[in-house]
Amino acid sequence: MTLTRxxxxxxxxxxxxxxxxxxYGLAGDGLxxxxxxxxxxxxxxPLFDPLILHFAEAEAAFSLxxxxxxxxxxxxxxxxxxxxxxxxxxxxxxxxxxxxxxPNVALRVPVHPVAQALLRAFGGPLAAPSANRFGRISPTDAxxxxxxxxxxxxxxxxxxxxxxxxxxxxxxxSGEKPVLLRxxxxxxxxIESITGPVERAQPVDARPQSPGxxxxxxxxxxxxxxxxxxxxxxxxxxxxxxxxxxxxxxxxGIVANLSPSSDLREAAAHFFRMMRSLDDxxxxxxxxxxxxxxxxxGRAINERLDRASARVET
Length: 314
Ligand code: TXA
Ligand code: MG
What we know:
- The protein is built from ten helices and 13 strands.
- By secondary structure, the protein is α/β, with parallel strands linked by helices.
- The chain has two domains: 2-200, DHBP synthase (Alpha-Beta Complex); 224-313, no CATH class.
- A nine-stranded mixed beta sheet has the order 1-2-6-3-5-4-7-8-9, with helices on both faces. A four-stranded parallel beta sheet has the order 10-13-11-12, with helices on one face.
- The chain is globular and about 60 Å long.
- The termini are far apart.
- The structure holds threonylcarbamoyladenylate and magnesium ion.
- Threonylcarbamoyladenylate (TXA) binds next to strand 4, strand 5 and strand 8.
């Protein structure tokens, strides 16, 4: 059976493609430095960007934290299993490679049934960054993982399309006040309903103080331009429009509509797949994306659009 094979590969220190409810991950044994090194190598990810450790349940996750503040337990109670990652002070046993030498570790309990089944069968933490090459569009189905990583992985578990579609929310609870490091599948509004006001970390240009905050990320190969209104998009057959809400039939270019009914959850679920398809469409030269209402999952999508459109300084 595939699950048995997956566990066997993980025990050997190999890494595999793994579905979660957010995006597909590139998973390896979270306590095996050789497996962690392999993840960085395949992803071409800089070693200063630490990994999230995944667990089947909260108690297992918290067992690797040096201290678990009451807020972490409240959030876990409410949102785990699900698309939330908590950053807490780590225990000694967590390898430096997983945390990039930081004193904190990122912990998450995914809800996807295949991820759950694998975590239970494996019986330990799995480190899993999104299964894309560093800086590129995250994969939300097994075929996209194959496009990103090709034969670099011996196995990709197919769990169908991801139903959340954007990565987990990353919340740092290691300090006095909670800090949002990445907007994601659990909205800021939902988090704040439990924690009260949350601070936001600011994106940076080069080597981040708080990792994962690089300005340029999630990027298509084609130029991506952000617009506030559809009227700003050049009316040309080679324009690709990543739309949200009603779209006029007369637009001559290629349209991918994140949600014709303006539903932010639906938009998140389609986001990376539609970006990828516009990027791959030979008929278009540039992608024009409409910014979404900046609330709930719209904030997570806008943050990704913003970083996907940022040019790298060379
Ligand atoms: O939804 C997700 O979280 C997906 C699926 C596969 O679980 N994983 C994912 O991993 O998005 P990755 O590696 O692409 O993003 C992890 C984020 C990065 O922004 C990283 O900098 C941050 O979490 N992170 C990890 N460990 C951290 C730490 N110790 N302190 C601060 N930030 C951390
Ligand atoms: Mg990623």
